[in-house]
Design brief:
There is one protein chain. By secondary structure, the chain is mainly alpha-helical. It has a domain of 103 residues: Arc Repressor Mutant, subunit A. 47% of the residues lie in helices and 5% in strands. Strand 1 and strand 2 form a beta hairpin. 21% of the residues are buried.
Length: 150
C-alpha cells in the first residue's frame, strides 16, 4: 500500500504544525518540505474541511492545529485523505465492469488488508509522530523568506 501524495503532504503538514507554535503559512510549510505550494494549498483546504486544522486569514493568519496533537489520530487522517473506494475497480460498484466480480474474492481480501492497515495507523496519534519536536524542527529545511509575508 502506498499513501497518496495528498495524504503524505497532509500528515507532514500536521507534523509541522505540531512542532511549531502559532499560525504558520502554507508557503512556510511548503518551503520547509521543498514541496509545491499550490498542491499544499489543496491539502490544507481539505485538512480544514475535515476539522484537523484551523485557518485564519490576514497578515498574522495561517494554519494551526484544531486540536492537540494527542487528539489527532493518524488512522483518521489517512481515512479522511485517502481514496480507497477506487483502490481496485471492484471497490466501486458504480464504475465496476469486471466480469468476474460475482465469483471473485479479491475485493474481500484487499478490503481486509486495507482495514488492517488503517487499524494499525489507529494506534498512533500525531503526538506519537512528533515525540521529539526539536529533532523534527532541525530536520526541516529553513524557510528562506519571512513567513509573515505569505
Amino acid at each position: 500500500m502506498r499513501l497518496s501524495l495528498h495524504a503524505d503532504y497532509a500528515l507532514r503538514t500536521l507534523m509541522y504544525l505540531a512542532v511549531h507554535d502559532g499560525h504558520r503559512s502554507i508557503g512556510e510549510i511548503a518551503r520547509a518540505y521543498a514541496i509545491s505550494k499550490n498542491h499544499l494549498m489543496k491539502v490544507a483546504q481539505r485538512l480544514v474541511t475535515e476539522g484537523f486544522v484551523e485557518a485564519v486569514r490576514g497578515r498574522s493568519g495561517g494554519l494551526q492545529l484544531a486540536r492537540a496533537p494527542s487528539q489527532i489520530n493518524v488512522g483518521q487522517v489517512a481515512r479522511a485523505l485517502e481514496e480507497t473506494r477506487s483502490f481496485v475497480e471492484c471497490f466501486n460498484p458504480a464504475t465496476n465492469s469486471c466480469v468476474i466480480t460475482p465469483a471473485c474474492q479479491m475485493r474481500h481480501v484487499l478490503a481486509g488488508g486495507l482495514e488492517a492497515f488503517f487499524r494499525h495507523l489507529d494506534r498512533y496519534s500525531l503526538a506519537d509522530l512528533t515525540k521529539d519536536p526539536s529533532a523534527v524542527r532541525e530536520s526541516l529545511l529553513t524557510p528562506s523568506a519571512d513567513p509573515q509575508r505569505e
